[in-house]
Amino acid sequence: MGEAANxxxxxxxxxxxxxxxGPKPTLSLERIAAAGVEVADAEGLGAVSMQKVAALxxxxxxxxxxxxxxxxxxxxxxxxxxxxxxxxPAEGAHWRGQLTAWAHHLAASFTRHPWLLDAxxxxxxxxxxxxxxxxxxxxxxxxxGLTGAERMDSAVLLAGHVRGIAEQARAVGPNGSPEAExxxxxxxxxxxxxxxxPALAAAMAEPGGHDQALDFGLxxxxxxxxxxxxxxxxxxxxx
Amino acid sequence: MGEAANxxxxxxxxxxxxxxxGPKPTLSLERIAAAGVEVADAEGLGAVSMQKVAALxxxxxxxxxxxxxxxxxxxxxxxxxxxxxxxxPAEGAHWRGQLTAWAHHLAASFTRHPWLLDAxxxxxxxxxxxxxxxxxxxxxxxxxGLTGAERMDSAVLLAGHVRGIAEQARAVGPNGSPEAExxxxxxxxxxxxxxxxPALAAAMAEPGGHDQALDFGLxxxxxxxxxxxxxxxxxxxxx
DNA sequence: GAGTAACTGTGTCTCGCGGACACTGTTCAT
DNA sequence: ATGAACAGTGTCCGCGAGACACAGTTACTC
Lengths: 239, 239
Fold this sequence. Notes:
Largest sheet of chain A: none
Oligomer: homodimer
Radius of gyration of chain A: 22 Å
Mean pLDDT of chain A: 93
Number of helices of chain A: 12
Shape of chain A: flat
Low-confidence stretches of chain A: none
Strand content of chain A: under 5%
């Protein structure tokens, strides 16, 4: 594992490793990552295998190992390739507007590539673009009296929320999808056990869709952050 | 998949399916799930295979299929077995205190069984205990003027936050663990590219540990919810 | 210009995985 | 007593990641 971490870091961050002798490589990390993304977009992350990715490029499975140490690193490259560039800082914009745009863009990324949710669980090394998303939150919160730890924690808070919403959106899925059936099963279960889950049954029985889940949580979080910032920037003397 | 959903629902919720003829089953869903949890606790979710679980019970792999339709269902049972009962409603306690306790208990669950993070990604059918966690949040927020959708969204918000923190905690890991090495690699990377991630580098350079990440985010969320509840329970006439 | 070291892509092999299926042995209802 | 329903086993298949040895290709060095 210790070596694997270094391998991943070198692949995502390192110098492109310029060799001179031998035949020119026909493939490239970019093409391989793109092929992996194509498979994952079409059939999900579970369908991504060395064989399938190689076949899509008209190559043998083993040739991929000339470029990528293993599947873990391939997926890391796929993530880095699929994730968008974070939205531009928007000079002069208020922190709240910046973070709102940030969250919406991130949510759109997850919608475009639902498998990102599967690929970004567990400890791993982030790529440059992924880290840039974190940077944007911390930068947007600079200068309001928050400590470094608090700014980082805010980023985790926001990212966790967007992630949760994306997961929920995936569970609902488009109408007629296999995911929609799971949701229907859940509704049936709750309704049948309404005595054990009275609050849940009541909440689900109310009309009105919850398509606003992203903005709802976002507004709560930002309200909470605003309250903290107010306290920090207008330090009333402790009574 | 449509049938698979029904299978899972029957296993998690359904009647225990009482047959009468034939030999008594030696195993039980509970024992199988417990064995799976044991493997996952020790070696992670990736190490859970039919073979390993069966071997731990001194049985053949195929005998498990007499009890469980497939690995998906096994993992669903493991989740339901590993997750704690949500904390008791605490009669008369304020919603804020209830939700705080809720979040802390949930975080403790993730700490005890880190593989729960891996097992609870993607669309799936929740078990009774898992659903009870959701019920507690919605119930705690009953009667403050929030709509059903808002109460549900609040639950997703809270769960997402706890999840994010648990994931972060796992990425840090205990000292000397393989995960800690990943974190060290991240620190090195940020420091080396401080020009591209100035805010991040500055935030990480500040002293003070961020062990308070769970409570920090929790306080922000609850502050935000409190503000909304205030607005709803003291409805100032619209100007 | 010849030799050789470095490199690319391939074919073959192993091991572990999930799961299908046929089979033996056991138990209970009739 | 008999036969249906059920429990556990053994064997088989396809697919997955990856190790390894190999042949073909290229560029540096003498």
